[in-house]
Amino acid sequence: MDDGTDPVRDLMPDDSRIRYLYQEHRLTVGAKRNLACREARGEFIAHWDDDDWMAAWRLRYQVTELLQTQASLCGLSRLLFDQPETNQAWEYVYPAGQKPWVAGGTLCYTKAWWQEHPFPDLNVGEDNHFIWSLPADQIIALQDNTFYVALIHPGNTSPKRTQSRRWHAYSPARLHSLMGKDTSSSTSDLQGAAGSQAPASAADGFPLVSCIMATYNHAHFLPQAIQYFLRQDYPNKELIIVDDGPSPDLVDIPQDKRIRHVKLDVWTPLGRKLNLGIEASRGQIIQKLDDDDYYHPHFLTTTITALTGWDPQPGVGT
């Protein structure tokens, strides 16, 4: 299911088991999943991320588990990650004692359950909503996690916060051993693709967040404030600076299409400036930023997580 600007039908092998569906208009991730599930002819559906590694026995293992347990869905709550560029690896471990969860890229479930509970029309968190529509006893977190390795690369859409307590260092040699001969080809192909496509793909699946910064005569604060915005690890963002200060030249605004400067000729109340910034925004979500405060690089990711209920840390293949 492809809704990109460059269709890849010509890359599809001549195999009756593979069907390529192209949509001319952009859809949310949830809508694309529903279209693909509707087209599916099988009793079981597995998610198949386009930038991750999977063992040859993955489907056999997951379908057998569903048949034996009569559960509706299974996947991994402990996920292996490989970062070829730095030769580092991690195991992400979802904490015990929380609501059942498995990673979206590892899902395998019955089509019957999807027919009763389709994915919500969302770009972010659609997998979690789908998983949590199930009773806890219908979700199986598989014990053997060696059939799936998520690759970390510049084109990932979800930031990987590998310094958090959920991430544990893993032996790269051990990881590459289980991937076998697939390691070199998959990682090198991925690095090449990520290098050429990162600017476009970095925002896929994330709602645009419009950051509104109202300022007055604070030119000495703004260079640092702009840097705080630029270093945010949330990938799909824009900054609108609404300025009613007396100076005609605010500061040297970076030549970045994500940053816009709205200059007002007269002093304007703060509320009106914020409204003007929102009117000029293109995003689905508005975030107010002050020009003289510090913002941690994870600030936007944290606020969007709280607002949407989506957890960016376990994101797989994104």
Automatic annotation (TrEMBL):
GO MF annotation: an example: hexosyltransferase activity
One Pfam family of this chain: Glycos_transf_2
Matching Gene3D superfamilies: Spore Coat Polysaccharide Biosynthesis Protein SpsA, Chain A (3.90.550.10)
InterPro entries assigned: Glyco_trans_2-like (IPR001173), Nucleotide-diphossugar_trans (IPR029044)
Source domain of life: Bacteria
Residue ranges occupied by any Glycosyltransferase 2-like domain in the UniProt entry: 5-92, 210-306
The protein's name in its UniProt record: Glycosyltransferase 2-like domain-containing protein
Gene source species: Entotheonella factor
